[in-house]
Structures are given as structure tokens and as C-alpha cells.
């Protein structure tokens, strides 16, 4: 009985230490992390007087590093991502849903994949996950995959969550900076 109590005590004491050590080891080979998300607004700006039907003659689409936006507004409640130096990526998104149109508050049956772009100026290299995952009814999703091609450093990271059908971007990750907790 005493051996069982000693063993249980060791497990209770050492397990948290082991988990902290594992977390420290895992964070040591992170290339970049993203700690929140932004949903897409398909229009960057408009200019000129409105047409009689309320549309505008000059609309600039919200293209991000060569990737076109979705045609409708989308929101995302939360996004967390970790990209390792070997190209392994884990993304957890919550509440990626349409924010306008007749399908408002639905996932539109979308399947998504992740793209990491590290260049601040063209030419841009799209480092994509190989598989697309379906959005749950509430817009939640998880990606656990590898980027291809694997990044070799990432000076200016942009993470886009994209539609497998049409490859437009729905959401973007907000990079965690070194001074962020």
C-alpha cells in the first residue's frame, strides 16, 4: 500500500514538471505562432459616387499577397496556430462563419486549408497544407498537417485560412510577437 501511495505521489509531483518540459521543448522549435484571427472583408476600399442601385463603380478587392478574398464577409471567433521549423502546422479555429448574405451565420458547407506566406513583397510563395478539412456547423475546425513547400525562415508571416473550392481566403491569423504573453 505504501508503494502505491509513493508512486501516486511521484506521478502527481512529476507529471506537471514533465508537461512543462514538453511544452518548453515544443515551443523551442516554433517558427511562428498566431494567437487570434480576422475574418475577411472582400472589399478593401471604394471610390467614386454610388450608382443608382447602391453599388460603386470603383471597388478594390481585399487581395492579400496575391490571394483573392472570399466574395462575402466572414467572421472568426478565435484562431490559434503554431508553425514549426520543419513545416508542421497545427491550427485550431472557432466560429468561422458567413457574416452576410442569405447564408449568414452558416459555414456554407466549406472545407478549408491553411496557407503561410513569408515574403513581404512579390514573388510570394504559398506554403499550403495538403488536405482541406470541413467546417463544423458552428464554424470550428482543426488542421494538423505539413506545409508544402516547408518554410525556410519567415520574416513577414501571413497565415490565411482558405476555401478548398476556389482557394479564396476566409480568415487571417494575427501573429504572436515575442513580447506577447
Mean of residue pLDDT?
87
Helix-strand topology string? HEEEEEEEEEEEEE
How is the biggest beta sheet arranged? 8 strands, antiparallel, barrel
- Overall number of domains: 1
CATH class: Mainly Beta
Beta-strand segment tally: 13
Biggest sheet: strand arrangement: 1-5-6-11-9-8-12-13
CATH-level-2 architecture: Sandwich
Shape label: globular
Determine the number of helices (DSSP H or I, runs of at least 4 residues): 1
Counting helices, strands and paired strands, the structural category is mainly beta
Would you identify the regions where 5 or more consecutive residues have pLDDT less than 50? 6-26
Instruction: Estimate percent helicity.
Output: 10-25%
What is the alpha-carbon Rg in Å?
Answer: 21 Å
First-residue to last-residue Cα separation: 44 Å
Strand content: 35-45%
What is the name of the CATH topology? Immunoglobulin-like
Description of the structure:
With 181 residues, the chain is mainly beta. The strands form 3 sheets. It has an 8-stranded antiparallel β-barrel. A two-stranded antiparallel ribbon has the order 2-3. The model is unreliable at 6-26 (pLDDT under 50). The chain has a single domain, classed as Immunoglobulin-like (Sandwich). The longest helix is centred in the N-terminal third of the chain and has 27 residues, at 2-28. The protein has one helix at residues 2-28, and strands spanning 30-39, 43-47, 58-61, 74-75, 78-84, 88-94, 97-98, 111-117, 127-129, 133-134, 141-148, 158-163, 169-175.
Short descriptors:
single chain, 181 residues, Immunoglobulin-like, eight-stranded antiparallel beta barrel, 1 helix
